[in-house]
């Protein structure tokens, strides 16, 4: 399997670590923000435990630990292992971008 | 780029020629033909088979040399110990498996047909006793009726306990293949990567055409060929291409390919796997053609080839016909007979009979006659001589019999006669022969195209499966694609090569395809000739036609069930010659068509791959990479004993002369620290530089406790949770500047914590201004601990540095200048419970630091200590480590619940509050000490209430970490015990069923030593 890292180019999958579904978003509640503890706990429960198991194109987190240490969001077909797209996570390569802007 | 050279016969003088011929005769190669072949008669080679000395020539395979020496019997079969000979001339060989070499290099199940001959080759037959000719185990044949498909399951069912002790060893002795070496493999195996635009798999006419087209167009081409020579079927069949002899065409094509710098030719390299994204695996047999690899050369090399496009031109495999006696030595594939004659100048028989149901098989008749041997009969069930072969029949006055071969007579030395039955009138006749050439048609090699769960499709006109598509980026061409004429192979290969090159953006011209006859290929499918006697489908696993029909009668009709019930196609040849015949017989038995019956799933590897090649250099001490601490070599010089901690090698203890065991050394080290001063390399802890305006906020979110409030110049112990509320990791983090923290992790989780922190930064909190840099390898870090630690350190730092409690109090952290000017980072932290510092210097100064600590510490009796003493002191102090941070414990379980901030959100905060994670009956960390002070406490032992019977219902936890405490003079430990903190002082039962131990212990505070922490504040 080959993964096209947006920073490093196409690399062998041994350089990457798979995390899983990129859809769940970490709930954002202010501490003592007035939300009921049950609602907060339910939201975190869903975030931590509930995942879809798709046969088809899925958004996934991959970590390029053997390369640039960027977290990537890949669209991958779980049936064919084909990568539809690979993009950087929002905070990946920030230093690079900042340096480029200087 | 390529080192490939096709051997070309050089000009010889007539005298040389004569000498060689004489040598041949004297070498008793009774079946060697005078023609040239592709062997080098100036290089005779000696070899032995079953102890008998023989000769062959360079260019021979072991099989062709045996053929030339008139040897027919080469093996005994797997189950029935039937005599077997050589069936094919290629990698699909099911029968002629031998044991190669001796001693540590002994290798079982080597196909004689792919083993190149070399001088001094030693091969032995396998699965026979006492000898190949007189194999006592052939008595199995008499019991054949019980050795049917599934007999293991039916016969050896009960009593169940007999299976392991009696049945299995007995079966394994009776049925089997060769024996592997029992010594470590003395050879090396390599792994390598290669990249190209177009990968061409198979160097026959189609593959050569494809490589040439793609190479001319300018693509980077790799051509892999499992054989020693390029040419594929051209080597056995000859023919005419572009108006020249096929061998001449082969030479000129090879020359052109070799001249192209963008084409790489890899012979002796078998492609065995197709993986995602255009990655392919191939095995190069680098030194299998010599007795032992040259110095510094590898035996085999595993290639991973990344190709943008591939063209699979892997050819086709001729399939046998299933008829009684079809496994006798001397029954050989028709194409193999041609190959032995044309390529190797070796004659498999002097009176050859040919049994074919298709036009291609007839070519064997012509080649045998031209070689000067005799075709005694051609048996073809089709009753009509193919048009293109009528002249052949007339020229040689061939005896053509309409019908089928219904039996084969002979002994261990092979075929003596065959019975031909006219399948219309049932009349039989006997034909004397010493070699029966058989052709049941050709099966395109669809395996590689089906490795991604592709299903082949049936083509009625050639009675064979062809690829029904291919993995992305792959095209199939030539015979592998069902093109069975030479002309079509050349055309198809050329166009596939040109197309692949164009898809890779090559702009050059692929040139014209070479031309040859596109002769027709007529076939009337014939799978099975019924009759008395065993008719074999799978020669290697001894599966007969009646096993297949038995499986059908017993309900194993699906091909996948058929395969597993009969073991059809499950031997080392993976059914290359047997699968299609097996499913055709099943189709007939069930009244379905062959495509309805379908094929089993194709999986890699296509050819056997030695485990050694897959392991490569990753064996013994190189099984995984090592990481050495900066003071490793210094520690080795001190005689340290090392322990593997993940990839790291850490000093475990430093034995002194006269010490009787590890415990004595470790206790000495502990007491030296507690009473004086010691130091330990702790560079293996993960280290992360955290910088940025939001660094403090970031750490607040990843740790349960606050770091934004930490003063510059201070260190703090931090605990991280997973998002599900379980403890993930711990370590000390120091604030070196307003926007700069230095974070440490445990040794074990260093990499994972870095990954986790990057996830938090890049994915969860991308808005924070923070950057992370792994600094584990950049800093050598030493713990300096003991009442004299400060005195020692004072001698190392610049005199201007104030290390007093006022100038540098407990939990202080700052840069210091060492004598000589090196800037170090100093932390006043303690894992041992003594007054202690940790000092970080750039890694290159690590060894010098260890030496300087020894020099500066000499007046104080400084003692280097290892991970064992470190562990003893942390247990004495009740510090948790890996055994307690075990992926099931919460912060409160560890006694650290109070650290959890209530004022901020952090990873794991919400889920840590779940009911079960805050339940009052959780197992929490406590101290455990046996009531009998002489008792040795063992980790893993269970904690049970006193007086209760141990069991799942009474189990209340277990002992996690133990040590012998030299200051307390007894074994102590930490444990996870239900409601442990409420039970201090309670006597419990310690039950250790693994070691059959049972004793009592007292639950106590986990802090055994200096509970007030006076010493560390020094």
UniProtKB/TrEMBL annotation, chain A:
Its EC number is 1.5.3.1. GO terms for molecular function: sarcosine oxidase activity. InterPro entries: SoxD, SoxD_sf. It comes from the Bacteria. Keywords: Oxidoreductase. It is an enzyme of class 1 (oxidoreductase). It holds the Pfam family SoxD. Transmembrane segments: none annotated. This is Sarcosine oxidase subunit delta. It comes from Mesorhizobium shonense.
């Amino acid at each position: 399997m080959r993964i096209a890292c947006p920073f490093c180019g196409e690399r062998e999958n041994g350089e990457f670590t798979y995390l899983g579904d990129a859809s769940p978003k970490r709930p954002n509640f202010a501490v003592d923000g007035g939300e009921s503890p049950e609602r907060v706990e339910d939201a975190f429960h869903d975030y931590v435990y509930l995942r879809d198991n798709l046969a088809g194109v899925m958004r996934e987190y991959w970590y390029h630990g053997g390369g640039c240490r960027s977290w990537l969001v890949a669209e991958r077909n779980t049936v064919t292992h084909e990568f539809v797209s690979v993009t950087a996570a929002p905070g990946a390569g920030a230093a690079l971008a900042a340096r480029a802007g200087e | 780029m390529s080192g490939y050279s096709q051997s070309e016969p050089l000009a010889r003088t007539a005298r040389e020629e004569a000498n060689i011929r004489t040598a041949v005769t004297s070498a008793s190669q009774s079946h060697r033909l005078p023609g040239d072949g592709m062997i080098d008669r100036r290089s005779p080679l000696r070899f032995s088979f079953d102890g008998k000395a023989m000769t062959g020539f360079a260019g021979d395979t072991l099989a062709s040399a045996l053929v030339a020496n008139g040897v027919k019997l080469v093996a005994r079969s797997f189950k029935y110990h039937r005599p077997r000979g050589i069936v094919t001339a290629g990698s699909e060989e099911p029968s002629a498996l031998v044991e190669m070499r001796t001693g540590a290099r002994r290798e079982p199940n080597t196909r004689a047909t792919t083993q190149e001959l070399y001088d001094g080759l030693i091969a032995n037959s396998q699965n026979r006793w006492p000898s190949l000719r007189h194999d006592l185990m052939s008595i199995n044949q008499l019991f054949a009726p019980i050795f049917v498909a599934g007999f293991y399951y039916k016969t050896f069912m009960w009593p169940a306990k007999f299976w392991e002790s009696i049945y299995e060893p007995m079966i394994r002795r009776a049925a089997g293949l060769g024996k592997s070496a029992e010594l470590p493999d003395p050879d090396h195996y390599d792994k390598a990567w290669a990249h190209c635009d177009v990968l061409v798999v198979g160097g026959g006419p189609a593959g050569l055409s494809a490589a040439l087209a793609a190479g001319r167009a300018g693509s980077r081409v790799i051509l892999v060929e499992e054989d020693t020579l390029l040419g594929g079927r051209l080597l056995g069949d000859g023919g005419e291409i572009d108006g020249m002899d096929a061998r001449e065409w082969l030479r000129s094509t090879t020359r052109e390919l070799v001249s192209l710098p963008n084409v790489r030719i890899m012979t002796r390299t078998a492609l065995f796997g197709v993986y995602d994204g255009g990655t392919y695996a191939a095995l190069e047999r680098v030194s299998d053609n010599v007795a032992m690899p040259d110095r510094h050369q590898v035996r085999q090399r595993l290639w991973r080839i990344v190709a943008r496009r591939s063209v699979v031109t892997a050819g086709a495999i001729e399939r046998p016909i299933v008829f009684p006696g079809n496994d006798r030595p001397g029954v050989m594939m028709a194409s193999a007979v041609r190959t032995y004659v044309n390529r190797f100048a070796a004659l498999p028989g002097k009176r050859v009979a040919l049994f074919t149901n298709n036009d291609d098989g007839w070519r064997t008749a012509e080649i045998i006659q031209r070689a000067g041997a005799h075709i005694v009969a051609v048996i073809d069930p089709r009753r009509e001589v193919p048009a293109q072969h009528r002249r052949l029949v007339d020229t040689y006055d061939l005896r053509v019999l309409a019908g089928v071969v219904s039996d084969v007579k002979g002994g261990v030395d092979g075929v003596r006669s065959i019975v031909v039955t006219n399948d219309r009138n049932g009349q039989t006749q006997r034909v004397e022969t010493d070699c029966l050439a058989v052709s049941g048609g050709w099966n395109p090699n669809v395996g590689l195209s089906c490795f991604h769960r592709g299903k082949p499709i049936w083509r009625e006109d050639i009675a064979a499966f062809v690829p029904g598509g291919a993995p992305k980026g792959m095209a199939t061409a030539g015979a592998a694609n069902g093109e069975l004429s030479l002309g079509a192979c050349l055309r198809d290969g050329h166009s596939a090569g040109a197309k692949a090159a164009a898809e890779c953006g090559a702009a050059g011209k692929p040139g014209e395809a070479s031309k040859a006859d596109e002769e027709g290929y007529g076939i009337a499918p014939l799978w099975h000739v019924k009759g008395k006697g065993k008719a074999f489908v799978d020669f290697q696993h001894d599966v007969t036609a009646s096993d297949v029909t038995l499986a059908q009668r017993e309900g194993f009709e699906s091909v996948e069930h058929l395969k597993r019930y009969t073991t059809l196609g499950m031997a080392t040849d993976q059914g290359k010659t047997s699968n299609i015949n097996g499913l055709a017989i099943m189709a007939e038995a069930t009244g379905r068509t062959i495509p309805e019956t379908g094929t089993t799933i194709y999986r890699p590897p296509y050819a056997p791959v030695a485990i050694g090649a897959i392991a490569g250099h990753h064996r013994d001490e190189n099984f995984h990479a090592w990481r050495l601490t900066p003071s490793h070599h210094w520690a080795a010089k001190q005689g340290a004993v090392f322990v593997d901690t993940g990839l790291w090698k850490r000093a475990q203890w430093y034995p002194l002369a006269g010490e009787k065991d590890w415990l004595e050394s470790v206790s000495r080290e502990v007491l030296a620290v507690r009473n004086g001063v010691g130091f330990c390399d702790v560079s293996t802890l993960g280290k992360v530089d955290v910088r940025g305006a939001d660094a403090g906020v970031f750490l607040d979110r990843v740790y349960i406790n606050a770091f934004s409030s930490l003063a510059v110049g201070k260190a703090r112990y931090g605990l991280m949770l997973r998002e599900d509320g379980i403890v993930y990791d711990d370590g000390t983090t120091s604030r070196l500047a307003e926007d700069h923290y230095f974070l440490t992790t445990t040794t074990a989780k260093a990499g994972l914590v870095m990954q986790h922190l990057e996830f938090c930064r890049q994915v969860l909190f991308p808005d924070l201004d923070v950057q992370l840099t792994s600094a584990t390898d950049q800093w050598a870090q030493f713990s300096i601990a003991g009442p004299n630690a400060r005195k020692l350190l004072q001698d190392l730092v610049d005199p201007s540095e104030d290390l007093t409690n006022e100038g540098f109090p407990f939990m202080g952290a700052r840069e210091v200048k060492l004598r000589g000017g090196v800037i170090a980072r100093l932390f006043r932290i303690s894992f041992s419970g003594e007054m202690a510092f940790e000092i970080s210097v750039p890694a290159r100064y690590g060894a010098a630091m260890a030496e300087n600590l020894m020099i500066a510490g000499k007046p104080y009796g400084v003692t280097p200590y290892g991970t064992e003493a470190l562990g003893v002191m942390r247990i004495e102090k009740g510090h948790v480590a890996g055994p307690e941070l075990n992926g099931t414990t919460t912060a409160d379980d560890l006694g650290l619940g109070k650290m959890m901030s209530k004022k901020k959100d952090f990873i794991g905060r919400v889920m840590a509050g779940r009911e079960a994670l805050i339940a009052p009956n959780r197992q929490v960390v406590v101290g455990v000490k046996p009531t009998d002070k002489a008792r040795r406490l063992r980790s893993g032992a269970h904690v049970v209430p006193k007086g209760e019977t141990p069991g799942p219902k009474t189990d209340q936890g277990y002992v996690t970490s133990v040590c012998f405490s030299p200051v307390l003079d007894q074994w102590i430990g930490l444990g996870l015990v239900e409601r442990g903190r409420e039970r201090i002082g309670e006597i419990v039962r310690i039950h250790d069923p693994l070691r059959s131990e049972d004793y009592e212990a007292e639950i106590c505070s986990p802090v055994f030593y200096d509970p007030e922490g006076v010493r560390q504040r020094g």
